Fold these 4 entries.
Entry 1:
Amino acid sequence: MFQLDFMQNAFMAGFIISILCPFIGLFLVLRRYSMIGDTLSHSSFAGVAIGLVIGVNPLITAFLFTTLCAIVIEFLREYYKKYAELVMSLVLTFSLGIAIILISSGKASAKVNSFLFGSILTVSKEDIFLILIVGIICLVALIFLFNKLIYITFDEEGAKTSGVKVKLINYIFTILVGSTISMSIRVMGILVISSIMIVPVATAMQLKKGFKTTLLFSIGFGMFDIMMGLFLSYYINSAPGGTIAITSVFTLILVIIFDKFFNFKQ
């Protein structure tokens, strides 16, 4: 299996994604921003459609469009503070409208199934390079902003009072979410990207540990889910996105059952 180039590419991409997605996912969960991840993952469909129509690498156009949507979401949240879900619906509706129009026009130069459901066959060296570059930038930014993000996550008003540039950091964080999602499309697929950002975090939280320990376990579970999902998808010939999503849910269920018998608090 590992002697095949496309499997090597898929596992390399999966390794990068397995670190980045749960890292961002923990902050999304704790800040109750889970729907932002879901909205941006579906919005990336429009970016993919644009790339397919104009003949540009869909990962690049998905990255640009998803980043733009992330900025718009954070901008509109200032005007709809009490109705954050309304902003998600607006961006999601607009993005899907663009995607449907472009795909239904018949001008797309490739099938969209690999982007909707993920495909280990279509991950190229160019994709690996893009994922690696964006992944490193996102990880460096997260590490650099780590303490401030924790402060904002648990006490946003206190962070503002202390002089932390909350608005700027929120914009940067939302852009990082969009960037991570756009880079995960090839392996995970648009429809289930948000699952690998949220489910490993939910699994790690069952262990009832501190923040940093939960973060490490989230990355560990994310890595296990993606690697096992890719392994299974190869042998049962299934879409990796769905296989990884199911694997992550089964992992969560097993940890919950294990907790019932051994109680992680003890």
Entry 2:
Amino acid sequence: MRIPVNITTPATDAAVPMPSSGRHDVEQLTSAPILTPVQLVSELKLKTVLAIAAHPDDLDFGAAATLAGLTSAGVNVVYAVLTGGDAGGFDPTQRESMASIRQEEQRQAAHQVGVERVEFFDFKDGDVQVTHEVMREIVRLMREVRPELVLTSHPERDWSRLQRSHPDHLACGEAVARASYPAVENPFAYPELAEAGLEAFKLRWLMLMGGPASRSNVTVDVTGTAQRKISALNEHASQHPDPTAMRRFVLKAMEALHPDDGRFGEAFHLVEVNAADTISGF
């Protein structure tokens, strides 16, 4: 897998050694490069990002600080949520209204990080499956938005913290990965989409959140936007029986990626779907 070369660290401005060409397994990387959101935009040439998750609040837990940095850098970020999140929450009296509550919470959370468009699908919370129905809707939106980068949950289970690997998260990540290649770039996949004017295109980047630590190959320095992530998470009030503990946990997790230097980070698995040397099927 190829990832950007000659990336500099915000603290020292020194070049981080990276593979110069060809595809490499993440295990070959001795340390993940650190990029500011502005560097991420520059290195990946980002104008539009589509962020897809299974539930309201998934994107805010996994990537809100990075996404806030991207919107501040002028990137158009679109959110898509596969379910209404109706299986979440803790109040038994809110069962009938939980989906509408959580959708409004997600809209407000998105606003905190500069995202104005939030698309909600209507798949069953707790039963997201990798089906052609799910993939078709993802491909439809990808072809409409035509992003340079799609961000979603990692399809690999993280055994160190199983809560990150909710089955809906894994299914969402797998469905997005399958949509990213080959469906979104194959004009004969879901031909009704092309007939409706949604033409196939080649996605350049896929960025995965919440996966095993061994898969992380890039860290985004989010020191300047960490508090916006907290503000976004605060909007999901129905999901936090102990908001203070939630905030403490999230800040500690971000701080752990920059131990002892006062900075915050979010880690991802960055995949180059279509590189300069990519040919069909390889």
Entry 3:
Amino acid sequence: MTDSTRILEEMNDRSREVFRRVVEGYLESGDPVGSRTLTRTLSEKVSAATIRNVMQDLEFLGLLDSPHVSAGRVPTQLGLRMFVDGLLEVGDLDSTDREKIDATLGNASGDVGTMLDRVSTALSGVTHGASLVLAPKHEAPIKHIEFVSLGHDRALVVLVFADGHVENRLFTPPAGQTPSSMREAANFLNAVAEGRTLSELGQAVRTEISKRRQEIDSLARDLVENGLALWTNEGGQNERLIVRGRSNLLGTEEEEQDLERIRTLFDDLERKRDIAEFLELAEQGDGVRIFIGSENKLFSLSGSSLVVSPYMNADRKIVGAVGVIGPKRLNYGRIVPIVDYTAQLVGKLISDRG
């Protein structure tokens, strides 16, 4: 249970109604709501002094704030979160809004990018806010992959897919990586990429890592059991096999060969772990057209709010999201069903395209 949910459940009916009326009044007008205004709208007839006491309690809880000494109250960030989570009454999608969205997306021709541009236009037009559309990443088989260093903390992965699609994604490489290590990672991946999607390629690398780890375990088992060696940080990223008194304890050529084999396998294991990390970062990296119809700086603006909903493909897998960015005093009751409906519609169109 979140803190806001707990606070809401502990409120009495009067406090809950005063809080709800303040938030609804603020969302509708943008102005602070005073006690005298509430005396005309509350279901229970109480004095302005009583309402002021309740509002002071809500302010003490961090749910309301008073912009000026003699003014009414407005909801705080915590108060808005609690209202949206526990008190927001979401109505049905307005028929006019539905028609506008349907009209914009009704023509399903063109590629996915064109369709998502229309989604962005529809959301912006209907809500008068900035729209956010997270596009699905391409899942065709990979033909070629290349990593390009852009600096010590920035790199680009270029993905060429078998269907001719080319995608560039920016990511932050693991610390200590060099252009040569990136080339080595790309060479390995290109050798095993044929016919595999990016996620399948990641699974193939993880399988290779598991096989190498099992080989090392098998070779090292006897050495460890005989007290000739021990693990440090076993299973971790910096694990090592420490050999005790190697010159005295390792008497046979076979044991020497095992140690050399373990060293070689360790080197290979570390390379594959680096490659797996590269691939994971590339899969999560920013595509060149993720945010459509809005700019990243909107997220850092004080007083902005985001209503977002994921959409799914035919396999019920979340592949993207649509949303609306606007001021804190969004008409949440209207925006939520618009975003929800648009996400469902996009998911259906994506599924129909296979």
Entry 4:
Amino acid sequence: MEELVIIIAKALVDHPDDVTVKTLEKDRLVVYELSVHPEDVGKVIGKQGRIAKALRTVVASAAVKMDKRVTVDIIS
């Protein structure tokens, strides 16, 4: 799942080498903290958060088999 977040994020940004993902697990919740270059934050979030919402939807859909709730947090 972490690789999925990295692949999608690297396709969106201008500085793909600065993309990192940290995984935090709490009970039935998995949080992927996506960190990108400060110039690329807007590209990952998108207008009115549309790209971020789509990214979260794709990851949540892929995580259905894990029987856990999954979310993606974007940090610069």
